[in-house]
Amino acid sequence: MDRRITAKDHLRDPVRETRLLRRRMVIALAFTVLLVLVVLGRLVYLQVINHERYITLSKNNQISIVSLPPARGLIYDRNGVLLAQNVPSFGLEVIPEQVQDMSAMLAALQGVINITDADLKRFQRLRSQKRYSKGVQLRQHLSEEELARFAVNRPRFPGVDITAGMVRYYPHAELAAHALGYVARISEDDLAQLDPINYSGSTHIGKTGVEKTYEDVLHGTVGFEQVETNAQGRLLRVLQRTPSQTGDTLHLNLDIQLQSVAAAALGQQRGAVVALDPANGAVLALVSQPAYDPNLFVNGIDSKDYNALNHSPDKPLYNRALRGQYPPGSTIKPFIGLGGLELGVITEQQNTFCPGWFSLKGHQHRYRDWNPKGHGTVDLERAIVESCDVYFYTLADILGITRLHSFLSPFGFGQKTGIDIGGELPGLLPSAQWKRRARQQPWYPGETVITGIGQGYMLTTPLQLAVASATLAMRGTHSTPRIVAEIHDAATGHVTLPETPGSTAVPVKDGRNWDSVIAAMTQVVHGPRGTARAIGIKSPYTIAGKTGTAQVFGIKQGEKYVQKDIDLRLRDHALFIAFAPAEHPRIAVAVLVENGGHGGSVAAPIARKVMDQYLLGKPPAEPVDTGSIDPDLNE
Amino acid sequence: MSSMISPWHKLHLDGPLLAGLLLLASVSLLVLYSAGGQDMQLLWRQLLRFGLAFGLMFVLAQIPPHRYQQAAPLLFGVGLILLIAVLLFGDTAKGAQRWLQIGGLRFQPSEIMKLAVPLMVAWYLGSRPLPPNLSRALVVLALIAVPTALIAKQPDMGTAVLVASAGMFVLLLSGLRWRVIGGAALLATAAIPLVWRVMHDYQRQRLLTFLDPEKDPLGAGYHILQSTIAIGSGGVFGKGWLNGTQSYLDFIPERTTDFIFAVYGEEFGLIGAVLLLALFLFVIVRGLIIAYSAQNNFNRLIAGGLILSFFTYILINIGMVTGLVPVVGVPLPLISYGGTSLVTLMASFGILMSIHTHRRREHS
Question: How far apart are CA B55 and CA A408, in angstroms?
């Protein structure tokens, strides 16, 4: 082979080779020009044909629309005390797309500011459920020092920014938690229902209570800013701005001072106090104890705190005022008595003999009175004042469950009150129809008998009891309870009133029937034998009230209820309903103390403190004496 | 025409080529001022590099071309040894071993190969009859393949492609028969799946991203997308010098180096791009004229190979920035900020000028 090549070498033709090479160079030039034309074609495609599209993309790069979240509306109590406000808070936000190495960045950032494991966990979670805005919150509540330190190191962290925002703060913490509710971070579920534009800059939304019901007016209207930003998302200048509109201010009917007195009166006991203005249903106080600090929820409660609240046997998250369903006990008696008068079954003077027990005709079973010795001969007033069970066993038996049901319904028993915060339960006003539907069982006459003293199937919430006693106080005018009094436009000051269905009337034809029952209730507090007479002492105004004790746990025939032998959580619930002044009622109260024992000694003094605070502007000068009366064992 | 000897020839400089190169350097400084955020320090540094590189070109132009022919095998051998040394002791930067530290000098041996490979191929083919037969062509392929493989292993795909193409241009210019070229092209096409398998993951990713950049607009496709936005938004007239928003707002990555054409295209538009391409084309045509008028096969082959390599750099860089070819780290010759490739480039222009200015007087 080499030989052949050598032979060819001798035949080298320089002219031919030169021509070959020069031809190749011309071809190379042709290729070069062709390829330059291809590049040129590409440039024409980009710069002429698609110019519009790329100019738009370039503008989108350059200009971003930033949402300006509105400031949330403030909430004041009836006397102008601030209950919910916004406080400034600085945080750190990360735009993940602009961070090249997330773990390295986070590690470096930890040298500058404090980032806890909880922060990191939350950051990863938020990152996985990213929303409209590009930034993901990493830290909140930066201290002044951290703020300064980050500002100095900021060039080291492209894609990390300081966010200045307002955070909801409840200065009274747990005091009004069950009424106000709280705001918290917008969840995935919330997102599905929100207006994505109006909430484009918002991070929080009302989750419970007033904050939730009035979310629409509290939130305000989002504003927008056209800004020029660089590739790292840093804002360079503002081009155009549409300011946001602050949410409306709410003025509540709630009196935080009264709320505080009610909570203090309940003290460590579990229970609820609801105070209403009977004239219009204004909720003056709504206390459920124990409560929780709503501030914990605003920025995402950590699981330790949440578990502590959620698993506490005292159930602090549980709104007893709206959701606690308890047998009304003897507090139902004035309503049944009124029903007896109105339906013509009894008269005010008509007597019933109480031997200490009651039996249905042809039955052996004895329904016992709380007083085993019996009350002797009692009329309606005495029956209410001394809370005679036998009188009401008898009356209920005569009325029958159907008439009881239809007479009690207009007071709101067995239905939601329609208060302007969510979550309330309807309680239960039993009827034969209900029992057939719910239990597939017929109604037994014995069940009517115990309904007469508010036991058995009947269940009421403290809020329902307050509404019913307000209705009683107003002689049949029934108003829907309202926590919010007025909605003020933050900019114009224009005032609107919350929607309310208006009042309805309980059908009682003879006005004297109201007088009879209210007079009897006044004697409960002010009469010498009244079950709540202790709270009537030295009261400068007249109180109409009724004590109640609701059984948690049944006692067998012939056994005696001995309080100290009963497990604390199985003890009776203490109840008291009242309104005052009896002649011109300005406040109606319902008090429930879980496992408190006796309504007269435990629940009534709480109501007195609340009424004193509201009507006299101060709590009772000396502690209400509860020791001066005999313990009424089972009224 | 041949009797006219310009004063430049006495200095062994080619007037038109020098003019073209100086114009390109001026354009470079103009764009760098904008792309570098009006940083005068950066401009001075690049000006210094231009000075050194033009100086080197001047020195190399004084050396007669037959010296390059003699030195080719030695340069190639030293280059190979250095490439092996890089793989054994090289510094790692950005995940690739490319740099070699000798004394105080830190350099990339692969840059030497951009010159050494075409020189070696031209040396081998230039002294043998043309067109080369198959066995010589295979020898040439081996001469190209070994350094290319070593560079690809660093890994530095961009330089490997450039080194290989420089060698291949010499082979193609040498008159290799079209049916051999056609057969080789078929073979190369058949080898694509094999190449795919030996590629690094990031290289495959780049290729996939090139094929569909909008699939991952914030990840790997970001560079291509942002540079096409910059160029496209420039339109016919451009946004004006110092007015490129894509550039000023940091959307263009590597905007003083590999992606400088995006800044240029955004600020000077299609008109500016056409002018720049025309300038490049002028230099290439001048280089091809030098190759055409060279007096022996070695000179023709090396001159042609070097000027076509220059074109390849331009094509790959602008192709990459406009989204025509996948992202490979190739700077735009003479325009991008940086010194390493500039030195190699100006050295090759020095050789071109040497070839053109050392011709024997032709008496016809």
Answer: 108
